[in-house]
Amino acid sequence: MAQVTHNPPEGAAADWTIPQDWYRYTPQEHAMWDHLFARQAAMLPGRVVPEFMAGLDILRMTRPGIPDFAELSERLMQATGWQVVAVPGLVPDHVFFDHLANRRFVAGRFIRTPEQIDYLEEPDIFHDVFGHVPLLAHPVFADYMQAYGAGGLRASGLGAIERLARLYWYTVEFGLIRHDDGLRLFGAGIVSSYGESIFALDDPSPNRLGFDLRRLMRTRYRIDDYQQTYFVIDSFEDLLRQTAETDFAPIYAELADQADLDTATIVTEDRIYNRGTQAYAHAKAGT
Ligand code: HBI
Ligand code: FE
Q1: Which ligand sits closest to the CA of 87?
Q2: Please, how many CA atoms are within 13 Å of residue 208, restricted to the half-sphere of its CB?
Q3: Binding positions for Fe cation (predicted)?
Q4: Using a 6 Å cutoff on CB, does residue 36 contact ligand 1?
């Protein structure tokens, strides 16, 4: 991830928010959103957790064009007390955590260009809003996201941001979930990417391992390619139960002298849904 400075950029408020200026989007930018939306909406049913598709309906995101954050936030506020605010790009960790702890999801307002359609450095509005926002309409996941923000503010003081960032990465960004007879996608980094929505579920290459908080917090991740390991949660309720009530300080202390695990490693305690072939070569991945 690009490094962020610690003063809000020109034109941003002290909390790094900026106006979305929805009226300034061009027809080409709306068309880019519609293209990306149509591609994912056609391939996700049956692959993504059903609550994600329900969120698209609850928030009326199936309407064409880039969503107007004011309208989106009105519906989201009614559903779970969350709102979506625009920021220039990545914000400092403590700013990010503070927004989440106050049920404000920070989203980029720019959309990728045709040249960037399958890879871009920073999350754009399609990653942030299509990827992250639908599940914020789900009460349990909404509570988990707020608990994560509160946990982040606590972790900042404990020098445990790196461990906690792995929890976000392997659930909110790249999480899988058990469903009936199989696995389903829910991580925003996956569901906003055509290629990874297929790879994460169907490809024999990556490991798919049962969620284990301590083990996950020791596991490194890659930021510019498909994951070599995906973690599978049993349910959003279970994820919330394992994280919301838990003060992570003892866990950080317990992990302090345990070495990190590389992205593709499997350990004996792992619940293995798929032992990956790791055949996928490192390449610029789709977002
Ligand atoms: N800023 N805008 C934005 N979006 C993110 O997802 C984000 C961020 N800053 C920090 C961050 N994510 C992660 O490193 C946190 O888990 C710490
Ligand atoms: Fe994201």
Answers
A1: 1
A2: 20
A3: 127, 132, 173
A4: no
Q: What is the pTM of this model?
A: 0.95
Q: Is 177 helix (H, G, I), strand (E, B) or coil?
A: strand
User: For residue 188, how far is its CA from the centre of ligand 1 (angstroms)?
Assistant: 13
Q: Ligand 1 within 6 A of 87 CB?
A: yes
- Binding site per annotation, positions: 127, 132, 173
Q: What integer pLDDT is reported at residue 283 of this predicted model?
A: 60
Beta-carbon contacts of 22 under 8 Å, excluding residues fewer than 6 positions away, are 66, 68, 69, 70
Domain ranges in the chain are 22-285
CA separation for the pair 87, 117 (Å, rounded): 21
**Average pLDDT over every residue of 127-153:** 96
| Whether the complex's predicted ipTM surpasses the cut of 0.90 | yes
Residues measured by CB to lie within 5 Å of ligand 2, the ion:
123, 188
Is residue 224 very low, low, confident or very high in pLDDT (cuts 50, 70, 90)? confident
Q: How confident is the model at residue 284 (pLDDT cuts 50, 70, 90)?
A: low
Residues of the chain with pLDDT > 90: what percent?
85
- CATH classification of 22-285 is 3.10.180.10, yes or no? no
Alpha-carbon distance of 282 to 226, in angstroms, equals: 8
Q: For residue 218, report the distance from its CA to the centre of ligand 2, in Å.
A: 20
C-alpha to C-alpha distance for 131 and 188, rounded to whole angstroms? 4
